Amino acid sequence: QVTLGALVYSTSLNYEPVPAGNPVIIRTSPAVVPIECHYPRRDNVSSNAVKPTWVPFRSTLFSEEKLPFSLRLMNDDWSAERVSTIFQLGEVLHFQAGVNTENHVPLRLFVDNCVGTLTPDRSSSPQYAFIDFSGCLVDGQLDDATSTFISPRPRQDVLQFAVDAFKFVGDSSDAIYITCHLKVSLADQAPDPLNKACSFNKASNLWAPVEGTRDVCSCCEMKSCGLAR
Fold first, then answer.
1. pTM above the 0.90 mark?
2. Nearest-5° angle of CA 197, CA 183, CA 134?
3. Contact of 222 with 216, CB cutoff 8 Å
4. Per-residue pLDDT tens for 25-34?
5. CA–CA separation, 172 vs 96, rounded Å?
6. What's the rounded Cα separation, in Å, for the pair 210 and 73?
């Protein structure tokens, strides 16, 4: 385009995110950055670029209940429940699972599995299981993730975990549904392969439990921890 004082070239810089580690999810948004280069018909040459604005997506929480279980989004310092459920890619979701143990013998809470889907139906497709195999936080193994269980627990009937925000490849929806299966064991019962909370430590390249011996997490590497009773 030629204007009175300049020759203007227009183009676009396109960014399309590529899944890292898991082909179902991504943790960055696609972007189109319009670029215009203005070349004055005299004197110097200049160019300008426009920064992209990331579009947030909305996350809605669901939990399955048998005992009086709860699953809440917390603020970054865990001091209170988070008011907003809107996150940007690159942010971290802080989950707090709990169970009301009033009138019960002391119980220890575990998160058996958690699945992200595009609809409230946890069996729908596509889906992404970021906790699987009876308490393995498998999302933490991905190169672009820092997801982990928080250790130590604040109480035996509470379990906290942090998960990096994600979205599904090729989906433009602004909502992801999270469904988690929570369960309990007796507080004085030692953790075992079916009752555990294990995170992947990238520094040591090993699985580590919130409590119990490291061998309870060995099945996370094999991706086979038996069938829950």
1. no
2. 45
3. no
4. 888 777 777 8
5. 28
6. 20
